[in-house]
Design brief:
The structure is a single chain. This protein is of the alpha/beta class. The chain has one domain (5-135): Cytidine Deaminase, domain 2, CATH 3.40.140. It has three helices and seven strands; from the N terminus they run βαββαβαβββ. A seven-stranded mixed barrel has the order 1-3-2-4-5-6-7. The protein is globular.
Length: 136
Amino acid sequence: MMLSSLVFVSSALYEFEQHVVSQYPNEACGFFSGRADKADMYWPIENILSDSERFVMDGASVVRTTFAILGRGEEIVAAAHSQPLTTSISNEDIIGHQYYQHAYMLIATMGNPPLCLQLYKHHSEGYKLTFFTVSN
């Protein structure tokens, strides 16, 4: 089985981390755009629930952002959200509702360590934890 991975440009990952921190204690969400398996830019999307345990992306923002990404000749390579509080909802439950099954899913958990990032990729058996790298 071939391992899949995603490369995040460090500035894009930094933008996501800043979004997560700025939205705490509520969940933050957004997209990473790029080509193939490289995430070049982070696009924050409003969580219309303003909730610490769930997120729903604002539909109008999703449409505008998707057209902006496509206009750059890129695609959505990853969806992302934070999970600031310990809840009874597992990461697998959350990503099971993911509409972008072709894309990776990056989940940031606030806690100890302060920010833990986990990347998942959809496979025929469901979502599996995978690895990522960061470049300049």
